[in-house]
Input
Amino acid sequence: MKKTYSEPQQPEIPRLALRPKEAAVALGMSEKALFSRTVPRGDIPAVKLGSRVAYFPHQIREWADRELARQQRAAQQQTDGEEGVA
Output
C-alpha cells in the first residue's frame, strides 16, 4: 500500500479588504455606482493600495449603518411634514 503525503492544513487567513466588485456586491449596487459614491467623489470610504482601490468591510458596514439612519431620518421628517399639512 502506497502512503500519500499531504500538506499540513494552513489556517484560513481572513480577508482584510474587499475588491471593488466584492464591495459592490456586498452593498447591492453596481461597481459604477460604488465608484461614483467612493471618496473623494462620494462618502463611501476606500483606500488606494498602489494602483488598486480596496474597501475595508468594517468601514463598509459603518457607512451602510449611517446611510440607513440618514434615510430613516429623512423619511421621518417627510412624514412629520405631511402630518402638519392636514
Notes: The CA atoms of residues 19 and 50 lie 13 Å apart. Residues 57-85 form the longest helix (29 residues). The beta strands are 47-49, 52-54.
